[in-house]
Design a protein that fits this description.
Distance between the termini: 51 Å
Helix content: 55-70%
Domain DNA primase large subunit C-terminal: 314-485
Shape: elongated
Keywords: 4Fe-4S, DNA replication, DNA-binding, Iron, Iron-sulfur, Metal-binding, Primosome
Function: DNA primase is the polymerase that synthesizes small RNA primers for the Okazaki fragments made during discontinuous DNA replication.
Strand content: under 5%
Cofactor: [4Fe-4S] cluster
Number of domains: 3
GO molecular function: 4 iron, 4 sulfur cluster binding; DNA binding; metal ion binding
Radius of gyration: 27 Å
Length: 498
């Protein structure tokens, strides 16, 4: 799997027994790889039944998994935010193009899709909760991809599965049951396919094929009367076969995850993988903010010690940053965790070292801290954050996972996440002041109750930035305070320029 020459590799096998498949680290089978992935993706989709083959680097192992995880996190966030299937599809299509190209003939992209799925199996097979989340997100991903295929590729994919349950009824049986089948399928043609004309419905029905299978295979459709039942069998129209395919995909994936969990102890022989897998699986979150020499789109000198207090810029701050500013204004001081969280956030938006020292000096000396005390006790700390002291590490702004990993704020402390740390009354009052409606507030509180704090923050972003005709065109999950700020700032600038 990985390029290397010295480690013992001959006895390492993948976590599956399909056909005795095995790959050896350090070997290269480029032609065989291409033939394998061409066959797997002949119909553009896969059930991921055969283990991946070929070598990849450790960097590819981690980065491919991170890119897929970002897509799955976006799906999880959309589901939690009650997005419709069409809204989810619109959001995820952009993510596909950026992170996980699909329906492509590129060999590397096929390999990335296949490998990343199996890598995340290793990460999220470790508990029932993680398995459920992974199966739900991967199944939704599968359904979106299936709908993006042409009808020819959909048919090709279904045929490649060779599922016994996908047996179409004969024309004679369809004719015999035509009245009952049409009465059942007619409402679905209108609501799912948007066919309203009666003649068009009849024409579509004449061309449609039906699948006959045991009713328990489509039990969710039985309850909503979307299939015709007779003698314990359900008659499923072909345009609804995706429900059946998705259920089969989910069942198989769940079984494979349990099998992967049973094989996990074998990973202990390769100490290179354990830290990567723990990093990926911890908290089921990954930040979508990567600081590259400063803030996205920030011009030199755009942010100063004075204007970071301005109403215009402060309106872009997430609630956690507003809370830190409130504590700083009230006490002219912040304790260590608060200083770190706010200092690195301001660094992330593009506040220079000189302006940062000016900002903190003025804030602290406005209270009981003298200039001499500030220089002796605090100056080093802020320079250290910018990589100018000590080990000279370029520290990154804290993402939401880092913030949530810190101790909860005690009395007089302002670090942390308000969606986790504030009580219901305080949070409701603040959200009301931000012009959220009561149903919106209830939705945010519901996410907080489920410990989905980044989902709650994302909901607040959507509610506050969907007002005044401001279009939110980047509806992606927010798991970083600086990402919240950058998106808000971009929308603000876009509105001003119109």
């Amino acid at each position: 799997m990985f390029r290397q020459s010295k480690k013992r590799v001959s006895s390492r096998r993948n976590f599956s027994d399909h056909g005795g498949s095995q790959f050896v680290l350090g070997s290269s089978h480029t032609d065989a790889e291409k033939a394998l992935y061409d066959k797997i993706y002949e119909s553009k989709l896969s059930f991921y039944e055969v283990p991946p083959q070929g070598e990849i680097t450790l960097d590819q192992f981690e980065m491919w998994a991170i890119d897929r995880l970002k897509v799955l996190l976006e799906l999880e966030s959309c589901i939690s935010r009650n997005k419709t299937a069409k809204e989810i599809e619109t959001i995820i299509k952009a993510q596909f193009q950026k992170l996980l190209p699909f329906n492509t003939d590129n060999f590397e992209e096929k390999k990335k899709d296949y490998y990343s799925h199996f890598i995340l199996r290793l990460c999220f097979c470790r508990s029932k909760e993680l398995r459920a989340k992974f199966v739900r997100a991967e199944t939704m991903l599968f359904k979106i991809r299936f709908n993006m295929l042409t009808s020819n590729y959909q048919t090709k994919f279904v045929q490649s599965l060779n599922l016994p349950m996908l047996q179409f009824i004969s024309e004679e049986e369809k004719t015999e049951l035509s009245q009952q089948l049409y009465q059942t399928v007619s409402p679905q043609l209108q609501f799912q396919l948007n066919i309203t004309d009666e003649n068009q419905k009849r024409l579509y029905f004449q061309q449609e094929k039906f699948i006959k299978l045991a009713f328990e295979n489509v039990i969710e459709l039985v309850g909503s009367r979307q299939v015709f039942l007779k003698k314990g069998y359900a008659y499923l129209p072909q345009f609804q076969q995706l429900n059946l395919l998705a259920a089969e995909f989910a069942n198989r994936l769940e079984a494979e995850l349990i099998k992967t969990y049973q094989y996990l102890p074998r990973l202990n022989e390769d100490d290179r993988l354990i830290p990567i897998l723990q990093h990926l699986s911890s908290g089921y979150t990954i930040s979508d903010y990567d600081q590259q020499g400063g803030a996205y789109g920030a011009e030199d000198g755009e942010f100063t010690a004075k204007n970071v207090y301005s109403k215009e810029i402060a309106s872009n701050y997430p609630l956690c940053v507003k809370n830190l500013f409130a504590g700083l204004k009230q006490h002219h001081h912040l304790r260590y965790n608060g200083r770190q969280q706010l200092s690195l956030f301001l660094k992330g938006i593009g506040l220079s070292m000189d302006e940062a020292l000016k900002f903190w000096s003025e804030a602290f000396t406005a209270g009981s801290v003298t200039s001499d005390k500030f220089n002796k006790e605090y100056r080093y700390n802020f320079r250290h954050n910018y990589g100018l002291e000590g080990a000279r590490i370029n520290y990154r702004p804290w993402d939401c996972r880092t913030i949530l990993s810190k101790p909860r704020p005690a009395r007089g402390e302002y670090h942390g996440c308000p969606y986790r740390d504030w009580n219901v009354d305080k949070l409701s009052s603040e959200l009301g002041a931000m012009q959220l409606t009561q149903p919106q507030i209830n939705s945010v509180l519901d996410s907080c109750h489920k410990a989905e704090y980044t989902v709650a923050c994302t909901k607040v972003f959507e509610c506050t930035h969907g007002q005044s005709g401001m279009e939110v065109d980047e509806q992606t999950h927010i798991a970083h305070p600086n990402l919240y700020f950058e998106r808000s700032r971009q929308l603000q600038k876009k509105e001003v320029s119109i």
